[in-house]
């Protein structure tokens, strides 16, 4: 059970929560602030002054006053009417991360929900009741309304949820877990759906996967360098300190460490006629390092957002209830676009390394398509083509989503962020990148083995050993699809990075 401190949650905590499917709860010290803000909302609901979302309608209907007796109906109607999500369900792990992010937001004590609301989310996480949340329907402004409404629907006994691997009506799932639905009070429905937690959860997952891919790309890039007997001179530390970018410096240092002690490298330190390697080898620190800097920046944006209060209106520290626009997910949209750019470029340069290794005109002595019997066997010819297809797809997907906007809700919400679009596409992009890097691992391991009796470095030898547990050396042609799937899995779960002993913190 992970205890969350609102305003202090870290990327490492949230990644652990997502990867381990652990439960989460708020630090008990949040209780007084939550109760105080709930009391302020209750007083406003009983008063005469119009307070948006408390005793008024929503959006374009904010001018419509709602009678005190209709408060519960107003909030229930809000949830049910906003359950308009479509498409495939969000994964259970990502949905649970979204729920944990909602806890962080409510736990700041500015949303005006009662402790019972927080307790039910905590109990759903603890008991494994996971709402079915469709992936499509949010434009990333006024909150991720439709997706979060599907989460909130289960809390009021509607919608659907997964419990014990069964998809059940929301009320049945709660009952099976020994839980009861809540009746929403003033503003509580609005607090649940008016936030960026859906977009932020998806963007965080994209970030976690992208960082794993980036670390793997440093490993597979070093393997490719050794496979083609590339020069390590471009990793000289002074080259990178003269430029000064932190990511570039870190990637070059990691590559030096990974290649240290390679007998392959030692064999051509003298007498090598090549003055310079192609950019995909020589410029790895510059390209992958720039991607690392971009991901670090995006990660900082996302952890700030994860700790933020993003519903509306907010109960401020002086007790006033004020309408604002924290629900607008522009920071998340920008972060998602930055992650997409980094993912596309990591894949683009990795694909060129794959192409280099299979091309006998460029691979410095490796056999065509890395097969011992070219002609009779095609070897890794079409595996390279697959990487080209996925690289190209990622280039298209990397087009920014944040520059798109369309007015909604009768022009009340006349500029939207499209953060959900930007974050959702990161899942496909990182899967594509994982395949590209998996193929690079297969090709580079094959290339290094062709350099025998010369050996690679100890860290890279461990990586090849880990790969060979799941993907055998290519001899004669065989059915390759399972090999690509297994190599992709080794990228996604971080096995290759672990084997190399590589540590680059976000």
Protein architecture, described:
The strands form four sheets. The protein has a three-stranded antiparallel beta sheet with strand order 4-6-7. The chain has a two-stranded parallel sheet with strand order 1-2. Strands 3-5 form a two-stranded antiparallel ribbon. The two termini are 24 Å apart. The radius of gyration is 26 Å and the shape is elongated. The protein has helices at residues 11-20, 31-46, 71-82, 92-106, 115-127, 145-155, 170-176, 188-193, 197-227, 237-243, 246-259, 263-267, 279-282, 284-306, 330-358, 381-397, 419-450, 458-468, 481-492, 495-500; strands at residues 2-4, 24-26, 86-89, 130-131, 134-136, 160-163, 166-169, 314-315, 321-322. Helix 11 (246-259) packs across helix 14 and helix 17 crosses helix 19 (481-492). By secondary structure, it is mainly α. The protein has 20 helices and nine strands. It has two domains: 2-195, Fumarase C, Chain B, domain 1 (Orthogonal Bundle), CATH 1.10.275; 203-268 and 277-310 and 326-404 and 416-500, Up-down Bundle (Fumarase C, Chain A, domain 2). Helix content is 56%, strand content 5%. The mean pLDDT is 94.
Strand content: 5-15%
Determine the CATH topology of the largest domain.
Fumarase C, Chain A, domain 2
Radius of gyration: 26 Å
Number of domains: 2
Q: From the coordinates shown, what is the CATH architecture of the largest domain?
A: Up-down Bundle
Outline the low-pLDDT stretches. Answer: none
* Spatial strand arrangement across the major sheet: 4-6-7
């Amino acid at each position: 059970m992970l205890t969350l401190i609102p305003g202090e949650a870290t990327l490492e905590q949230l990644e652990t929560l997502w990867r381990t499917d652990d439960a989460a709860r708020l630090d008990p010290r949040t209780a007084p602030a939550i109760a105080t803000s709930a009391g302020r909302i209750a007083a406003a609901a009983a008063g005469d002054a119009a307070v948006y979302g408390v005793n008024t309608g929503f959006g374009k209907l904010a001018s419509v006053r709602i009678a005190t007796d209709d408060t519960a109906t107003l909030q229930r109607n809000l949830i049910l009417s906003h359950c308009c999500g479509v498409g495939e369900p969000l994964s259970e792990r990502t949905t649970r991360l979204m729920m944990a992010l909602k806890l962080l937001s409510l736990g700041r004590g500015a949303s005006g929900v009662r402790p019972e609301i927080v307790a039910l989310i905590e109990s759903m996480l603890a008991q494994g009741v996971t709402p079915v949340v469709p992936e499509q329907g949010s434009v990333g402004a006024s909150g991720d309304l439709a997706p979060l409404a599907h989460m909130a629907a289960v809390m009021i006994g509607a919608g659907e949820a997964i419990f014990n691997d069964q998809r059940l009506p929301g009320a049945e799932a709660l009952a099976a877990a020994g839980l009861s639905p809540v009746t929403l009070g003033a503003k509580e429905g609005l607090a649940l759906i008016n936030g960026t937690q859906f977009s932020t959860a998806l963007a965080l997952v994209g970030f976690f996967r992208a960082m794993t891919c980036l670390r793997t790309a440093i490993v597979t890039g070093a393997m490719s360098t050794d496979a083609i007997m590339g020069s390590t001179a471009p990793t000289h530390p002074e080259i990178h300190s003269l430029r000064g970018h932190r990511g570039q410096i870190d990637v070059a240092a990691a590559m030096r460490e990974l290649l240290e002690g390679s007998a392959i490298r030692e064999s051509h330190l003298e007498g090598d006629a090549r003055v310079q390697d192609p950019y995909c080898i020589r410029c790895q620190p510059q390209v992958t390092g720039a991607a690392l800097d971009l991901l670090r920046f995006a990660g900082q944006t996302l952890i700030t957002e994860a700790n933020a209060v993003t519903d509306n209106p907010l109960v401020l520290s002086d007790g006033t209830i004020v309408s604002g626009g924290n629900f607008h997910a522009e920071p998340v949209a920008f972060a998602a676009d930055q992650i997409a750019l980094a993912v596309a470029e990591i894949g683009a340069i990795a694909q060129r390394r794959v192409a280099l290794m299979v091309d006998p005109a460029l691979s410095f002595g490796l056999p065509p398509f890395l097969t011992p019997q070219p002609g009779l066997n095609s070897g890794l010819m079409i595996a390279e083509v697959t990487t080209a297809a996925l690289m190209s797809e990622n280039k298209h997907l990397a087009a920014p989503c944040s520059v798109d906007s369309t007015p909604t809700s009768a022009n009340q919400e006349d500029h939207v962020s499209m953060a959900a679009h930007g974050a959702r596409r990161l899942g496909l992009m990182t899967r594509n990148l994982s395949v590209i890097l998996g193929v690079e691992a297969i090709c580079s391991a094959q290339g290094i083995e062709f350099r025998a009796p010369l050996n690679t470095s100890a860290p890279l030898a461990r990586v090849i050993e880990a790969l060979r547990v799941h993907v055998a050396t290519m001899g004669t042609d065989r059915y390759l699809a399972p090999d690509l799937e297994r190599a992709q899995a080794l990228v996604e779960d971080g096995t290759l990075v672990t084997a190399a002993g590589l540590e680059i913190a976000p």
